[in-house]
Specification:
Layout: H1 9-80, H2 86-92, E1 97-110, E2 113-124, H3 127-139, E3 143-154, E4 160-171, H4 172-187
Antiparallel strand pairs: 1-2, 2-4, 3-4
């Protein structure tokens, strides 16, 4: 047997290369399943994100519809519980209106509803005042129907005369609320 005193560089490098090759094979062996798993997770995440976005979009749309419906319901509930006050309405209708007359024509009741017909005549300086008046009717909060057609004529001095009919609708709930308010004001001492 021969005794080896020296260091064999070739053997050491070949062992090192074999070790590096084995480490790379083992590393790739562990890396490939991890990459496949990451790809599957990425695909699942993409599908879940798309599903979430579709559900969120549907939720946002329904939420907008619900908020719109809530606002419409608030307006309707306010109108149902509000009575039309012709005197107060006449006071608030002053912008661009020279003369304004509102006169109660008749009143009828049908079930829980009370219908009051009013004749309206007004003299205005320009057509915009008529449209402002119609906007004011919409903002009044009461259930009011404008009976068309609106008769419009021109006076000798250039003023516009408009006449038409309004139908104010009052519910029993609004009448009760108005009666309670009147009782508080009248007998609150």
């Amino acid at each position: 047997m021969k005794k080896q005193d020296g260091f064999d560089l070739t053997k050491a490098l070949s062992f090192l290369l074999v070790f590096i090759a084995m480490a790379m094979i083992i590393g790739v062996g562990f890396l490939v399943p991890t990459v496949r798993s990451l790809n599957k997770q990425s695909i699942l995440l993409e599908v879940e994100t798309r599903s979430y976005n579709a559900v969120k979009e549907k939720y946002d749309e329904e939420s907008r519809r619900l908020n719109t419906l809530k606002k419409e319901n608030e307006t309707a509930l306010t109108a149902i519980t509000t009575t039309f006050d012709a005197k107060l309405f006449q006071k608030t209708t002053q912008s661009g209106v020279k003369t304004f007359q509102i006169q109660k024509i008749d009143e009828s009741t049908e079930g829980p509803y009370s219908f009051v017909n009013y004749g309206v005549s007004m003299t205005v300086q320009n057509p915009k005042a008529i449209f402002d008046f119609l906007d004011n009717i919409g903002r009044s909060g009461s259930l009011i129907q404008i009976v068309t057609p609106i008769t419009i004529s021109t006076a000798n001095n250039g003023d516009i005369i408009a006449s038409f009919y309004l139908k104010a609708i009052t519910t029993e709930l609004a009448s009760e609320k108005s009666d309670k308010r009147s009782a508080k004001i009248g007998g609150g001492h």
